[in-house]
Amino acid sequence: MQALLKAEIFKLFKQSKTYYALGALLSIEGIIFFSAYYQGTNIIDLLLENLKQKFYFEGTLLNGNLLVYLILNTLWFHLPLILMIVVSGTLTAEYKDRTLQTIMLQPVRKWQLILSKYIVAIVFTLLVVFLLAISSFGFSYLLFGKGDLVVYINGLNFFDAADAVKRLQWSFMSGALSMVFFSIVSLTIAVVLKEATKVWIVSAFFLILSNILLKVDFGDNWFNQLFFAKLNDTWQYFFYYQINWEQIGFNSVLTLGYCTAMMGFGIYWFQQKDIG
């Protein structure tokens, strides 16, 4: 198993699409910083002109904490999409090149092979989110400094600089779990469909559908609480004035359950089907 994990890590970082993906994420960050640097102050002043006459804010409203929050909001669609393309490619490329047959000539069990891909996909996803968090905090504070954070969730919520940093850090950790779910889903789709183009289309459709269903109110019932699409904005719960830790914990455990179920299905399907 250790040899399989090393091989999967090597293949992941050898393929060029991995570095294109990282470059794309950094480019999106750069565009956000560029836009904020040249236009952000005017927009913030226009939106909160009346509030600034009634409240005292420490530092400027356009600060590193606000930029990190904006990056969080803009990347939770782009990030899973890019991750799904890279992660699914670790399997679809081997289907296309027919290298899976060569691998299976070795003393390797099918469940071990696909499990190693899932493990590497999870580790890679967490690593990308971690690097994104480090770059977001680092460049945001370097360019814009620290200050109070104001967000609009069912009304305006204000957090002092120290509290904002903690909430942003927790939100990255919570969001990483959602990113892991989408990576696992994309690899499971690759197990079923095999062909890269089909996998990318279905993965993108799944992501888009999840974001649409997130906005749909299914009423106050168990389905609205347990449906996987409703768990993807758990990271936003950290920006309510009172953090609902119980709900966050429940959503996180449920997301882990969905991850395990999707991974279990993918392993089962891979074992049952011909890899040719």
Please describe what this structure looks like:
The mean pLDDT is 84. The protein is mainly alpha-helical and 276 residues long. It has a two-stranded antiparallel sheet. The longest helix is centred in the middle third of the chain and has 35 residues, at 110-144. It has helices spanning 2-14, 16-47, 49-54, 64-97, 99-104, 110-144, 161-193, 196-214, 222-226, 245-272; strands at residues 149-152, 156-159. The chain has one domain (2-272). It is built from ten helices and two strands, in the order ααααααββαααα. The protein starts with a helix and ends with a helix.
What's the short story on this structure?
The protein has 276 residues and is an all-alpha fold. The chain has one domain (2-272).
Kindly report the spatial arrangement of strands forming the biggest sheet: 1-2
Query: What order do the SSEs take from the amino end to the carboxyl end, as H and E?
Result: HHHHHHEEHHHH
What percent of residues are in strands?
under 5%
Radius of gyration: 21 Å
Give the overall silhouette.
globular
- Supply the number of helical segments: 10
End-to-end C-alpha gap: 22 Å
Q: Segments where pLDDT lies below 50 for 5+ residues? A: none
Largest sheet, in brief, is:
2 strands, antiparallel
Secondary structure tally: strands: 2
* Backbone structural class: mainly alpha
- Portion in helices: over 70%
> Can you give the mean pLDDT?
84
Number of domains: 1
